[in-house]
Amino acid sequence: MGKSSATKDAQALFQSLRSAYAATPTNLKIIDLYVMFAVFTAVIQVVYMAIVGSFPFNSFLSGVLSGVGTAVLAVCLRIQVNKENKEFKDLPPERAFADFVLCNLVLHLVIMNFLG
Amino acid sequence: MARLSLIVLITIIPFISTLCSSFSPENPTDRRILVLLDDLALQSSHSLYFSSLQSRGYALDFKLADDSKIGLQRYGQYLYDGLILFCPSIDRFGGSIDSAAIVDFVDSGHDLIIAVDNSASERIREIATECGVDFDDAPVLFQGMGHSLNPANSLVLKALSASSSAYSANPKTKLSNPPSLTGSAISLVSVVQARNNARVLIAGSLSMFSNRFFRSGVQKAGSSIKHAKSGNEQFLTELSKWVFHERGHLKAVNVRHHKVGETDEPAMYRINDDLEYAVEIYEWSGKSWEPYVANDVQVQFYMMSPYVLKTLSTDQKGLYFTAFKVPDVYGVFQFKVEYQQLGYTSLSLSKQIPVRPFRHNEYERFLTAAFPYYGASFSMMAGFFIFTFAYLYNK
């Protein structure tokens, strides 16, 4: 009785979360997908390093940090372009996206230099 | 006539140089020895010992210890390579010699033989104490004095120690207290090799060098076998060969090192280089340099502490060699050989060599193990590109 009610509660929770998330604007959903992709790439590399060892350590660092860095920058973009966030209401979303692109260019320049 | 004298001079020059070059690296045996005696009668009573030295090519200069004209050096140059002190009762040396001058003589790499008798003056005790030997005040058998070694001095060791049932006391007085020196702690003849390879022999008995002791028969206590001749002559002759560097003198030459497969010595190594190290070690036989054969010569690759310690292989012809990999640490290293073998002069070689890290273009590229990382980085870039379009054109 108790177990099935717990499952039911969890199902209800997911249902409500999903319906709430459905109201999120599309551009934020795209950012979320992008963040998940970046974090997943970073986690895969950490698992790979745990298996084969840390020998090309600089390559490992730049690979993982490219994933983590991308995720962090994307999260920053999401905070700035979220309409419900009143903190950045004066910042136009075009400006936020331009910052994001510039930071990504710098990040990938550093990653390429450190990868070899 | 002038031409003749020139020829004579030219023929003499090599001999002059052999006379002058005592204790050269090429011929480490001492040549000129000053013998200081209490009494010139010792010259005849100990003639067997002296003549065995003279027959081996030593120039002995006999002087009374209180002779006012004696001196060890003149104009900063030592006149002698070795010194024999057969003057146990001297209170004050003549000329410019004092105990400090004798210690300086040893400190500058020269050799010394001291023998005392039932008495030893303060001067002689002072010199012996400098060498790490304290004379006990009582004579023991073999007609002389036992002495104890300073345990803090690792350079001095016993050449002849008393039997385990011996004790050191004056046989003519009543023994009221237990003797301070007993058993094999009593040293009868001690030898010292200083860190500069100067050698010192300290004997508690002057009589053991005498003709009477050389010739006298000997019988071991509790044994019926009588030896017609005591072992003194052989023992002391061999010891004097050692003290005056006829034996046990090593030299190391031709230190070489290079990368495996090359022959030139580089000015610098890189971390993880494979290198080869070789050194030649020879032993002086009294006449010529013979290959030194041992299996315990080690080389250190040293920076504050040894990073590599390897035992050298030998070809039995004096060449010692090994090969090793430079450690994965950069800095200023040294090749060090510290060889201290009992009875031999110590070898101490060091050669400095810097070790550098990889140059920027010496690192390995495109490692198979790193492909996932490359792939991840490039996929993040591609993802950024796609994301940009998806984000901008998602209406």
Automatic annotation (TrEMBL), chain A:
Record has Transmembrane helix as a keyword: yes
InterPro entries: DAD/Ost2
Pathway: Protein modification; protein glycosylation
Family: Belongs to the DAD/OST2 family.
Bilayer disposition of the protein: Multi-pass membrane protein
GO cellular component: oligosaccharyltransferase complex
Function: Subunit of the oligosaccharyl transferase (OST) complex that catalyzes the initial transfer of a defined glycan (Glc(3)Man(9)GlcNAc(2) in eukaryotes) from the lipid carrier dolichol-pyrophosphate to an asparagine residue within an Asn-X-Ser/Thr consensus motif in nascent polypeptide chains, the first step in protein N-glycosylation. N-glycosylation occurs cotranslationally and the complex associates with the Sec61 complex at the channel-forming translocon complex that mediates protein translocation across the endoplasmic reticulum (ER). All subunits are required for a maximal enzyme activity.
Protein name per UniProt: Dolichyl-diphosphooligosaccharide--protein glycosyltransferase subunit DAD1
TM helices/strands, residue ranges: 33-51, 57-77, 97-115
Pfam family, one: DAD
Organism, as annotated: Rhododendron simsii (Sims's rhododendron)
Automatic annotation (TrEMBL), chain B:
Organism of this sequence: Rhododendron molle (Chinese azalea)
Protein name, entry field: Uncharacterized protein
